[in-house]
Amino acid sequence: MTTATRTQQTENSIIEIKLTREVSDKVSYSDGYNIKTGREVYENYDVKITLKNSGKTIKVSGKPGGFAFFALQDKYSGKYPDGAHARVGDAYVGKKLYDLAMAMIGELDAEIGKTEEQTEIEAVTVRAEANAYVETEPRHGENGYCRKCHSHCYGDCSA
Asked: What is the pTM of this model?
């Protein structure tokens, strides 16, 4: 497991971000049996923003772009209050604080880097997702049932 932490202060707030990244076994729990079904990448960001004026603390965990984790305003999220640029958990932050936090996340990501095993697992996942779309394409049966025209056409339904 690899962990890195960054802390930065501004005139109004203290930002602490912790990144945890590791590769572990994926386990399927089946009727009392723990079956290993491959490897998976675990990646988590813990963000804690403390406002100096009010003492209020905003805490959120997850991945950038995830629900309520530095969620930018879009057509589904509704209108943010004046001066708000992004939503963090149940609170809103301005553009300056958002840009600082995202820069810190980028630094942490570059510092930890990705191992060869993690890069390989991510490449396999991307290939599997790409192949899933290919499998949904209707095909002709070989001397049998055609999934395209739903009969026994032997591939001549496209002629």
From this structure: 0.66
